[in-house]
């Protein structure tokens, strides 16, 4: 595709994302590319990078274009994202004359800029994406209502933490030790010209430089590596699941952590992967097969189900990877910043405490309940844990440890991982120990 055709496709994709405001942008993008199989891998990555740069700078780009009558259109926003591209990002920055030349109206190119659009972009081209006159919530792309809570929580570290959350995330892989070692996986990737380096904290992690086509690699197809952020790998390590244990992954989704737990258990013992979403649990089937996991069964949780009652107090480890705001993954899902409301947070908090209470009954005396989120918000993390401990005197806070937990990380109580401090997505994890 020509650069103009890529630009045109990015504008089209942004329009599709905007017309489905409740749908995650990556789901819209997957459908968009599925319908356009003629778009090759390199073009697809360039189109996605441009669209994601626009989503990542959304509030700032709109701030720069605030005087455009009727508000900034997707084509202006995408053009502004190129003009103001960050040198460290994956979109090459271009000047006004280069960008306006792409809008030439030829076949597959966007229509020419109107005089008004050209004027707006010319003034943007003289700026930088961040501007000292921007209000803090715009500068850091966070909802206004959430800024006070985040400000109070992070204090002096607020700007560093929020700035790190604006950067594109690396692509991390977890090596599946059921299929081979980390060295073998790195070598297999290198043979396919994919450069990966060990992650600093997870013993199974490999980090890919830039955007590389991992799902086409044979190391991925054969189940030797799985895509998983290093922080998410550490949540699985915090469960300290061992061979021959009975382990429950209570909010298993499509099995990201189930796979890592099965590996920690050397494919022995028994894991039950539960969820309330049939579609998500179904998504685990292919992944479990690819990874060679055969100690896991899936169970769909439905209301009135006697399943949990029959298994009360029977699991050595129960992981609650709770449904949450996903604020810790805003590097990957910048569109989620706009969708997240106060009402969503209130509903999530109720759901999290209900899930914790249900899951707590499934842990055997002396066993462990591990509570985790990919949220940065105390309301979903420390506050939930404290409230739980006050409801359940048979539980105490344990240390986050285990054979795969990195010695470099203090696991003394509640552990928070952040992009600024750990170069992972934002995660929270806490071990709750049930009295014997
Ligand atoms: C953070 S996601 C889990 C991600 C998954 N553990 C992984 O590593 O890929 C949270 C999951 O909780 C599930 N969930 C929501 N409400 C639930 C409930 N009441 N009981 C169990 N799971 C629930 C959601 O369907 C979602 O799949």
TrEMBL record:
Q: Cross-referenced InterPro entries, in alphabetical order? A: MeTrfase_RsmB-F_NOP2_cat, MeTrfase_RsmB-F_NOP2_dom, RCMT, RsmB-like_ferredoxin, RsmB/NOL1/NOP2-like_CS, SAM-dependent_MTases_sf
Source domain of life: Bacteria
UniProt binding sites for S-adenosyl-L-methionine: 275, 305, 321
- What is one Gene Ontology biological process annotated in the Swiss-Prot or TrEMBL record? RNA methylation
Spell out the catalytic residues. Answer: 374 (nucleophile)
Q: Which UniProt keywords apply?
A: Methyltransferase, RNA-binding, S-adenosyl-L-methionine, Transferase
A single GO molecular function term of this UniProt record: RNA binding
Alphabetized Pfam families for the sequence: Methyltr_RsmB-F, RsmF-B_ferredox
The residues covered by the SAM-dependent MTase RsmB/NOP-type domain are 161-435
Q: Which family does it belong to?
A: Belongs to the class I-like SAM-binding methyltransferase superfamily. RsmB/NOP family.
**Name of the protein this chain belongs to:** tRNA/rRNA cytosine-C5-methylase
């Amino acid at each position: 595709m020509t650069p103009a055709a890529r630009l045109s496709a990015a504008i089209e994709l942004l329009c599709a994302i905007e017309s489905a405001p409740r749908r995650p942008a990556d789901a819209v993008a997957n459908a968009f590319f599925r319908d356009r199989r003629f778009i090759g891998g390199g073009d697809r990555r360039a189109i996605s990078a441009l669209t994601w740069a626009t989503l990542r700078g959304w509030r700032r780009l709109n701030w720069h274009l605030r005087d455009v009558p009727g508000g900034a259109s997707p084509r202006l926003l995408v053009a502004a994202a190129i003009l103001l591209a960050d040198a460290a990002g994956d979109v090459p920055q271009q000047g006004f004359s280069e960008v306006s030349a792409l809008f030439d109206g030829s076949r597959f190119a966007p229509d020419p800029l109107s005089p008004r659009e050209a004027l707006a972009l010319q003034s943007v081209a003289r700026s930088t994406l961040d501007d000292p006159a921007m209000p803090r919530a715009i500068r850091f792309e966070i909802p206004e209502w959430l800024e006070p809570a985040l400000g109070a929580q992070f204090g002096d570290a607020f700007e560093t933490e929020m700035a790190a959350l604006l950067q594109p995330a690396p692509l991390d892989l977890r090596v599946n030790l059921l299929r081979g070692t980390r060295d073998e996986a790195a070598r297999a990737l290198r043979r396919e010209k994919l450069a990966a380096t060990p992650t600093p904290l997870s013993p199974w992690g490999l980090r890919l430089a830039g955007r590389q086509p991992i799902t086409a690699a044979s190391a991925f197809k054969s189940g030797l590596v799985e895509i998983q952020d290093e922080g998410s790998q550490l949540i699985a390590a915090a469960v300290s699941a061992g061979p021959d244990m009975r382990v429950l992954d209570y909010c298993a989704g499509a099995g990201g952590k189930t796979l890592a737990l099965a590996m920690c258990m050397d494919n022995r013992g028994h894991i039950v992967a539960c969820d309330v979403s049939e579609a998500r649990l179904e998504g685990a089937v292919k992944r479990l097969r690819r990874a060679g996991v055969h100690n896991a069964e899936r169970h769909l949780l439905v209301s009135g189900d006697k399943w949990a009652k029959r298994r009360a107090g029977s699991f050595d480890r129960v992981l609650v990877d709770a449904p949450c705001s996903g604020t810790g993954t805003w590097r990957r899902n910048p569109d989620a910043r706009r969708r997240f409301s106060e009402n969503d947070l209130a509903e999530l908090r109720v759901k999290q405490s209900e899930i914790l209470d249900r899951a707590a009954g499934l842990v055997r005396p002396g066993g462990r309940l591990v509570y985790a989120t990919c949220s940065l918000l105390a309301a979903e993390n420390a506050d939930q844990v404290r409230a739980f401990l006050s409801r359940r005197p048979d539980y105490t806070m344990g240390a986050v440890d285990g054979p795969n937990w990195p010695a470099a990380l203090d696991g003394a109580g509640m552990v928070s991982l952040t992009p600024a401090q750990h170069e992972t997505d934002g995660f929270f994890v806490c071990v709750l120990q049930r009295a014997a």
